[in-house]
Amino acid sequence: MKLAKLKEFRQAAYKYLGKARDATFELTDAVLLTRNAYSLADFSLSPVFRRRWSSIYEALQDSRPQRQNLMQLYIQQIPIALC
Fold first, then answer.
1. CB half-sphere exposure, 71, CA atoms < 13 A
2. Which of 4, 20, 22, 57 lies at a 20 to 30 A Cα distance from 64?
3. pLDDT value at position 83?
């Protein structure tokens, strides 16, 4: 994926995260980059999660992502198979 396309995708996804979008976005990055996590607090050790560990719980509680819009965005990223 080209860097510009990745940036565009991340910006689009960010706007659909609802409340607590900053913490939710960082938590998403931490989930994707953390190899082993035995609790939610383990994600706070990721270098991309720059908040206190309690922000993880607040993000999960407060975030109200626009699921339909996010799903459409994800589907748009699926490459069209060449026949």
1. 3
2. 4
3. 46
Instruction: Map out the domains of the chain as residue ranges.
Output: 3-76
Instruction: Say how far apart CA 8 and CA 82 lie, in whole Å.
Output: 24
13-26 per-position pLDDT tens digit? 999 998 889 999 99
Residues 6+ apart with CB under 8 A from 49: 26, 27, 29, 30, 43, 55, 56
Confidence class for position 51, pLDDT limits 50, 70, 90: confident
Q: How far apart are the first and last CA of the chain?
A: 21
| Number of helical H runs and strand E runs in the chain | 4, 0
Residues 62-77: pLDDT tens digits? 889 999 999 999 999 9
Interhelix angle 67-76/3-15, nearest 10 degrees: 170
